[in-house]
Every structure is written in C-alpha cells, then in structure tokens.
Fold these 2 entries.
Entry 1:
Amino acid sequence: MKAIPYGRQFISEEDKEAVLKALTSDFLTQGPEITKFENAFADYIGAKYAVAVSNGTAALHLSALALNVKEGDRIITTPITFAASANCVLYCGGSVEFADIDETTYTIDIKKVEQLLESKPIGYYKGIIPVDMAGQPVNTEGLRNLANKYNLWIIEDACHAPGGYFFDSNNVKQNCGNGHFADLSIFSFHPVKHIATGEGGMITTNRKDLYEKLLLLRTHGITKNPELLHKNDGDWYYEMQELGYNYRITDIQCALGTSQLKRADNGLKRRQEIAKKYNEAFKCISITTPEINDYDYHAFHLYVVLTENRKELYDYLRKNQIYSQVHYIPVHLQPYYQKLGWKKGDFPVAENYYDRCLSLPMFPSMTDEEQNYVIEKILEFFK
Ligand SMILES: *Cc1c(COP(=O)(O)O)cnc(C)c1O
C-alpha cells in the first residue's frame, strides 16, 4: 500500500477540464472565473459577499486591515491554531493576547475570553479571532454577545470548517463563516483543506462596507469604479485610495475552486463517515476521540485523538507508512512569540492538549482499505 498522509487533495477529470478551459480563455487572472467562484462560495456558505484572495494568510491580513488594525491595538486569539491566525495582527502593528482553549472542543474558551475582557476597561481589546478548530464550529454567537458588550469585532478563522454549522439559541442553523455573528470569516484552499486551488483563500461577510474595502485592498487600494473616483480624467484614469497589496488569485485557480466546490458536500459527508468509523473503532482502547453528538455539524478538517503515548504512536504509524500530524504546536510557544514574552505554563489546557494530540489521516478520497489499515495499526499499537 502507498504511504497514507494526514490530508490529501482530490483532483477529478472535471477539475482538469475546468482548469484547461481557464488556461485557454482570454483571462488568466482578473477575469470572470473569480466572481464566479466568489458567488458560488458565498452561496455555499450562505454569506452575502465573498472576496477571493491569494491564500488564507492574505485573507487574514486583509481582514485585519479592513478592520483598521493598527499599532497599539490588542486582539485576542487562541493558542491552538496555525500561526497565521495571530500573525495577521502583528503584520498591522497590533499585539496578540491569547485565551486558553476549552478542554473538550479545543476551540477558544469563551469563559477565558470573558475573564480577559472583564479585567480591562472597554476599548482595551479591539477584536477577537476565534478558530473553528479541526472543523468544530466555534461559538460565534456567544462571542458576538461579548463583542457587542465590549465593542469588539470578530474575524472567524473558518479555514477548517467550510460546510460546518451549529444551531443558535433561536434554533436557527448558522453555517460557519455565514457572516451572521462574525464581521469577517476567512477560508484557505491549500491542498490539505476541504477545497483545493493550490494556493488560495476567501473572505466572507455580510457587511457591504467591509466588502468594498476588501476589494480595494486586494488590489493595491486602486479603483476604476466611477462611483468611487474623486475626479475622472478619462477612461484610463484610476485612483489609489488606500495602501493595498497584490493579494489577487488567478482565474486558473478559481476555475479549479468552482469545480471543487461542486463536490464539497460529498467530500464533507465522506469526512464525517470516516470520523464516525474511527470513533467506533477506538471505543475500546485508551485514547480520547472527538466527542460528537451529531456528525452532521462538524466539518472534520482534522480527526484529532489524544493519547499519553503520542510520540510512540506517531513513530509507530510512520514506520508503517502512515503519516499522522500534530495540530498545533501552541502559537505562544513558538520562539518568535516567546521573544514577545510568552512562556511555557501560560496556557496549560493548550499545552496539555499539545502534549497528547495527533491528527490521523482524514481526506475524502481515503479508501476503506486505507482507513482499515490505519485502524488496524492503531489497535495493534495499543494491544
Ligand atoms: C491553513 C490555515 C491558515 C492559512 O492558510 P494559507 O492558505 O495556508 O495561508 C490559517 N489558519 C488556519 C486555521 C489554517 O488551517
């Protein structure tokens, strides 16, 4: 059997045709495929607006810029995430505060967030960046209540959760990233994520003001929109109105994204099926599996187990051609963040999680045979 990675993209014949079509069209970038992908993605998520960008990190950076993050601003995020969720604040000159994670969901602990907020005057913190860790929808409704009380904005890092949802306190279904509770939500289309475009990212929102600002910032802060120009010297005329970037995505990538998006629901169902089978297979061994009441709501970007024998299990699986992964090394323990003053012991729940977590192979094109083999090796290890 071939080596089994923890995540892998799937490219269909239809995907290849879509890319070839884009390659032979008039536009390689800044053409119609971008809006097409944006509209399809906004529809899928149930948000009003979507802005496609070059990658998930660019989506975070642009989101922070659109919300005016600047020197002196303090933002709260989780230590258990990819570093980019915190870095985007530093890019803008702001600083990051962490709130420890919840023991069972591994997402930011809302009680810890509240404690932080209560300990300072209103206005001390400007925003919060929660993460739908592993595909588990974070409680954006609860965070929105805090945000309203303490005058904060919310950027939901939904990279792990396209298709995930929860029912809010009014029993209304809320898709991750739908713009109902968060001001902005961001996604990544890196090959290990649900939808692959090579590199790629998306920002969703229901706020028109932010949507328009993001469009400007994505492309140098330059506009040709006659409604926005201060004057108009002629058809060539454009204005640079903000200090923006080139964070554009290509038509080639968006054609692939639109084609991949058509299979997103099937891929998600397959992820949930794989998670369920793992959960059932590991019932009688001593590892902690995700606590799931309903497999439907969880987007299962990752299938994370906790074990005291993490290193031994990782090595054992590797020896057997199974490449599990660790998500994540707590951001505050990265040398760069330690230089900023964080240290071991600051967030014990996150650190304890890190000592034991392991992400097992999880991707829609994983065959039953592959999963059975992974299960067999894990049961063998615990025998
Ligand atoms: C993948 C990921 C990112 C960054 O996305 P890129 O497209 O790789 O820049 C940010 N946050 C989380 C939680 C991610 O998983």
Entry 2:
Amino acid sequence: MDYDVKGHLRQVRSSLPDGVRLVAISKYHPNEYIEAAYAEGQRLFGESHEQELRTKHATLPADIEWHFIGHLQTNKVKYIAPYVSMIEAVDSLKLLREIDKQAIRNERVIDVLLELHIADEETKYGLAPDACRQLLADGEWRQLSHVRICGLMMMASNVDDPEQIRREFRTGRQLFDEFRAAYFADAPWFCERSWGMSHDYPIAVEEGSTLVRIGTAIFGPRVY
Ligand SMILES: *Cc1c(COP(=O)(O)O)cnc(C)c1O
C-alpha cells in the first residue's frame, strides 16, 4: 500500500478534542485501507452505498461499527438492518417507518440521525428546518418503537467562505437545542451532532460537533 493511512489517521485523531468521535469514511476505498486504520484502533467507519457496505461488512472484522451516511432508498433498508450501527441521513417519515419495520424483523433497535438541509446547494438531500420541525411535531415517530433518534446530521455548503460554513453549523446547533428541549429532554441518547468533513471539520468541532465524518483527510482522494 503506497498511501500512509495510519499516519494521516493519527494526525486527524490528534486534532480532535475529547468527546468528538471520528467516523472514518471509507467509501470507494479498498479493504486494505480500512484494515490499516483498524490496526491503528479505529473501529467506527462510514459508507454511503448499500452494495459496497454489504461486501465490506462480510469481509472485514465483525467488531467494526458501520454508520450508513448516504441517501438510503427504502427498498435497501432490509439489507443493512441486521448489522448497521447507525443510519445517519434519515430525511423522511417514510424511511423512518421502513427502518422501524426492518428493525422489528431483526429484533433490534436501530439508531438514526435526522439529516438537516441547511446548505445552499439544491441537490443535497435532507430536511429543511421547517420540514424537520413538522416531522417531529407530527409525532408519528413516537410510535416507531424500534428506531431511536439520536440527533442530527448535516453537511455545510461546499464553499470556501469559512464564515458561511460556520453560520450553517450554528444553525444546525440551534435546531439541535430547540428539538432537544421540545422533544428529547428526557432522552439522553439524543446527543449526537454529526457535522464536519475533511475540509470543514475544524470549524464543525468549534461549533459543537460530536461526530465528524472524515474520508479524504485519512484515506486520500477517492478513485471513482
Ligand atoms: C463522502 C462523505 C463524507 C466524507 O467526505 P471527505 O470530504 O472525504 O471527508 C462525509 N459525509 C458524507 C455524507 C459523505 O458522503
């Protein structure tokens, strides 16, 4: 292997304060890269395609915790439901219902995050703040006994202006506080704020991230 995964992983880790967990985003990278990070003690990885995750889950150590971070089609939930540790990008009640259904089939509770759409880009998935408010106010999610909403996930706009990125993360944090007070005051598991990628995670951490999703800074550029 010609890429120094271990060295980059150590650098990223040493830049994270206590209380911020690293999700190593391994999509499009081969098993040997993941194994190098694993040998350094990394156990939490993120993937965004069901097929790729399936192959990796079947061939890599069983104690890896997998977060699904991509857009998940409802008809794919059944494939990851037996083993996925968290589904980070839930942006509809329909998807929540399907996750609940598959979690029941597997006799487990699946942790999820609600994905916010705050960034400028129109193409990104996620719930606009009012749509997220509406979903929570509607209350049906309370009946889904086998999904546990553990917090929020978001991506900032892909721009160079650090102040815009900071403003967006702040908006995410305000929404988190609002929802926690309104719906999750007695739910200590509602504690995760998944924001920050390779190019913006230092800002995300300053703005209260608890999970950073970092790929390129650890594994190098992806070859698609
Ligand atoms: C690919 C991806 C990341 C990681 O991006 P990098 O820029 O490689 O750190 C984080 N979050 C999501 C949702 C992604 O799809």
